[in-house]
Amino acid sequence: MSALALAVMNAEAQDFKAPLEKTFLAFDTTQDMTVKVEQSNKLSLITKKWGNDWITHYYLSFSKAVLSYLEKDATKRDAYLDEAEKEHEEAVSILAKENDETFVLGAMIANARMAVDPMNRWQKYGQLFSQNLESAKDLNPNNPRMYYLQGISKFYTPKAYGGGKKSAQPYFEKADGLYAKETGGDITKPFWGKDKNTYFLSQCKIDDKDTDNH
Amino acid sequence: MLKFIRTHLMRTLCILAMLLIVSAANAQYKLSGTVIDNKDKPIKGASVYLDNTLDGATTDSLGVFTFTTTEKGNQSIVASEISHETAGLPIVIMGDISGIVLHLKKNAVHDLSAVVITAGSFEASNDKSKTVLKPLDIVTTAGANADVVKALEMLPGIQQTGPDNGLFVRGGDASELSILVDEMVVQNAFFSGPPGVATRSRFGAFNYQGVSFSSGGYSARYGQALSGVLELNTTDLPDKSTVNLGVNMAGLYASGTKKWKNSALDIGGSYNNLTPFYGLASTNFKFYNVPVGGSGNLRYVWKPNKNGILKITANTSYITSGISIPNPYAGIVDTGLNKLNPFAGLPDTVNFVTKDQYYYTNVSYKQLFKARYSLYTAASYSLDTTKNTFGPIPINEKDQRAQFRIEGKDFFTSRLNLLAGAEVQHYSISKSFDTLNENFAETQLAGYTELEWTPINRIAIKPGLRYEHSQLLNKDDIAPRISMAIKTGINSQVSLASGVFYQNPDNLYLLAGLRPNMQEAIHYIVNWQYTKNDRTLRIEAYYKKYQDLVRELHDTLFDPNSYRIITDSTKVNNNGYGYAQGIELFWRDKKSVKNLDYWVSYSFIDTRRLYANYISEATPTYIAAHNLNLVAKYFVDKWQTNFSATYSYASGRPYFNPNNPTFLGDRTPDFNNLALTVAYLHSFGKWFTVFYLSIDNITNQHNVFGYRYTYNSANVVDGRNPIVPALYRSIFFGVNMSLTQFKKDEL
Predict the structure, then answer these.
(1) What residue spans define the domains of chain B?
(2) Contact between chains at B49 and A79 (C-beta distance less than 8 A)
(3) Top-level class of domain B2-104
(4) How many CA atoms lie within 13 A of B583 on its CB side?
(5) What pLDDT, on a 0 to 100 scale, did the predictor assign at position A75?
(6) CB contact under 8 A, A124 and B681
(7) Are the beta carbons of B110 and A79 separated by less than 8 Å?
(8) CATH code for the structural domain at B114-746
(9) What is the Cα–Cα distance from B641 to B667, expressed in whole angstroms?
């Protein structure tokens, strides 16, 4: 009896990995907003069907956070983040305890919240961003996504406030080394961010005369 | 989910019958149709799917979807999109279906927080959309000199400060506003100084994460203020370890914050010396000893768990100064007024020495349980000792205050919560003028409850009740309060507030041993606010009625000196009364021009009172009927420089002219002030540096706040002296450097 149940569960687990991986990769590799929305919608369906696994909520949340960055309308951006937060909470409650990836995702959502209205939100969400990253680091100091997010945050901070390419570069470099160690084969172990990190790192290396010679 | 599908089922069954076009049996069926909004416009990017399956599609720019499924029989087709409410239809699949139409409604005006009661209150925190003024705003407001209290003068409803300390809100004088830090009353909010010379408040902008200011109709949590309350909330756990250093024309300061995982310790100190500042300013009084002093502070914040926070604050400051000021008692010798006055007979200009030692400590703990209950407890103690000499006469004062507050809140539902709390305050003041000693001690108890109810999304109601007991006056009062807000559109709302407010008689009377009764004010406030895209328009009108104000009955002529001496033989009663009514306008725009943030605030007030030693009902001397402030800030990215300018205007104030048969019938000339601040930001390596320069009263306007008449020996007016601020044009510059810890292990 129990063997049968286990077999069924196993079969289900097998079931969701393939569509999840396919959909996530389709989402992650496209630059087209329309396709991203489409794939994020698919992730919703996958999450509805296999909602007992934290990882489906995790990817759905991630996709909503990414859509928020790409969307222009502020109300919509916040609406995406409302959903991202909801799914993030769901993932955490299934896990019963946060892991480094959920903390990193929490940091990313906080950063996206701030990006909607930086002047009014930097104080609250900036703090939430770094708290989440700190917690992630306590659990796994070798998570490259942590440094990648920090790098992006530095990259877009004005130079007068201690940001800019020069200060962002070491973070992307650190992330780069750690990404190289990730095998990235298993969809249940998040591996996103590598290509973007490579892109930002190359941007940092382009000497910008306007901003760098002060 | 199920429930709403069921409701849709009922509604759409009949439509469905028409939609179903059944085709030949096939293992795979094609479903197609459109998703439209309630104005029949197509919705792009909507997810359309059969519930509990993976079969679905996303709509294109025409709202069209097509997908195939192997499901058959009774199914639900659902559409969802980020800006719309999810909706579904039941369908029976027996073949291909085309022409399915799904209607989605626009999201309802988002969230409950959309309706916020704003009557009488200005919020200035960092995490709320209703924010009007933030800590950074305070620092970058020209003319505010980074003083929280001074910056508030640029908001509607507050008079320009003349030669006196404090905020004069609507019809009330400075004593009618209560200043709170973490919900605890601050007894001596301003540095001690000589009479007629306004001093800074003890609050710097960056120690507070939120400033909320109420110009009336405030919550039942607070009492003992006829006008309003100014609430400052200290910062929570800091983000990172930092070191902060600065030097400016008023001195040097340094502070350091060490951050651990769930706690932080903050230590700071300063040395103040105003020699450079007064050296460059055009002063009206002679500082023979410029203000010199120092301060130290200690703060510890601990988060024992995710939903709890403990804060411990202790600080101390010392300041001393010596100044030659016009004797406010000059002329008394001639008129024979108030013969008891020990200051009578002093020359027109006297030397005033201040030595002020201040201690303040506050401990608070807040905990949220199960996201349903919250508990807040706080205790505070302050001690302020001043040793002054006025010419040859010593004036010493010792003020103490201890307070305890406990408050619980139950969030029954997201629409209803109930708050209940209690506080006890004990304070004492003892003062000596030469050989005359006066003192009193008061204990006040209060209990309060307040309900916050949002019956529907558009309406919020907050009724409250406060009970107050004064041991000194042996008096109990019940003060009801109510406020509410109604959303009148997506971006606009109307708020109303009303309440009864009590306050003890001025310390002046209590010190003299007099025990008149509690004074009372009733507020009625209506406010309309429109907020969209970083543009805010507010219009507020109010009516305030004062009763039981303390009145002195003198059988001599009116004495215009606000430092007049009251003794236990002065006759007083509670027969004073008055009113204040006005309209206020506030417009702020951060959107129209990139990097430009400006606001306009205008207030009109009509107020008259019969209180204190007034001989008939009149507009008080601190009231200007019209007040206007224009504030603009512009950041130039390329130069990393922020420019800020403030222009303030106030119409003339009443003053006492003994030759005018109408009491307080004269008006001073109008008040004008133009201020400019420039701040340049630069990072020297890891050091984030701000250089700032501000000039107050650029045009060196000789503003006058009133006149003091002098008499000859025949008791006839022989002249008058203008009452002027301590400074006209002043220049202030400095530099602030902060280092955020660069953790070596961060990489």
Answers:
(1) 2-104, 114-746
(2) no
(3) mainly beta
(4) 2
(5) 84
(6) no
(7) yes
(8) 2.40.170.20
(9) 41
